[in-house]
Model the fold of this input.
Amino acid sequence: MDARRRDAGGRRDLFLHGAVSPARLHLVVLVGLLCAGIRVAAQPQFSEQRLKAAFLNQFAQFVEWPPMPGASDLQLCVLEPNPFGAELEELARGETVGSRPVVVRRLDPVDPPDSCHVLFVSAQTTRGPEVLKAIATRPILTVGEGPRFLDDGGIIALRVVDRRVRFDIDTANAQRAGLRISSQLLSLAIVVRGRRP
Done:
């Protein structure tokens, strides 16, 4: 029997009865975000911040952390001020990375991000460079925005190109933090810095 079902109209059902792995499904979602042709502010339901939240929600699927003993969930932290409002929490609800549920936390800039696995640093965060320097060797995937984010020690920098949300990656900063970025994610970045020739 064909793994794909057909509806009464003869169209193939998109559900492939387990033939698509969760990792591949997350990659399809991420590629969809990149290729959908949705321009920032072209449609109100696809605001720049909502698209950035969607990217942020997917990145952890493509990162390998060192062993995390005792961690029962994956902490996705947003350093205040939080540009996403409640959108990130809505997108992360019910999501898992491996077997760990994703939990979104808002973090005051003076609070240490010790239990965070992913940390978003907004361009409006005044202490961003200081925080990035303090956690440079900790296994925290730092995602942010702004032209100097990677120079300041960040790992993934979101930016708008031709009114579309895209990203750059610094693999040297990821290695310093003990993180391994999937080649699938690296292939979707506009710029990958820190690669060895």
The chain has one domain: 22-193. The beta strands are 63-64, 74-79, 96-97, 100-107, 118-121, 141-145, 156-161, 164-170, 180-181, 192-193. The chain is about 25% helix and 20% strand.
